[in-house]
Amino acid sequence: MDEIEGSLVAHYEKLRSYGLQLLRTNPGSTVKLDVDIMPDSIVHFSKMYICLKVVKDGWIEGCRRVIDVDGSFLKGLCRGEVLSAVGRDANNQMYPLAWDVVPVENKENWKWFLDLLLEDIAMGQGRGLTIISDQHKGLIEVVKERVSECEHRQCARHVYANFKKKFTGAEYRKLFWFAAKATTTKFEDIMKEIKLIESTAYEHLMKKKTNKHMV
């Protein structure tokens, strides 16, 4: 397979050519390649951002102003993370918008990704935009600084993953998801039920401002 496809390490040597090919076949796309130059002048890959022209045009023209951003680990020979932005189309299906390969998920790399993404989709400071994410501290800080006018909501699945570490049981799980999907009035009633069971569970969730910032 190495003879046919080449090694994964060797693929990194072709990234610049890959980026140029994307720009040639998809005019108007955004491809950014960042490298680190070592003291011995050897060039190492740092990060790469890709947003295809037809995809960003489709999001601007036909998708609701909601974006989910998240990171996923690369577990092969070359480690790192893929940062991605996914929208929702008119059929409420996932709409991949842009992606970025970085060495680690941190504030600096999230800023690099979001700066390029917001420029591509012409959202400026995020007025009218909703961003959904996990609770990564670096990302939360970047959204506050860079997209101050957007509505930033936390993914309920991530909120529940932390919640169930302290509060286990089927009753907590049932009430949590009822609350996450409820209207404002019904939400308040369900939260009262949680408070009756355990006041600290109620306080834990209210610190997340779940009635405004959880989806």
UniProtKB/TrEMBL annotation:
InterPro entries: MULE_transposase_dom (IPR018289). Residues 66-162 form the MULE transposase domain. It comes from the Eukaryota. This is MULE transposase domain-containing protein. It comes from Lactuca saligna (Willowleaf lettuce).
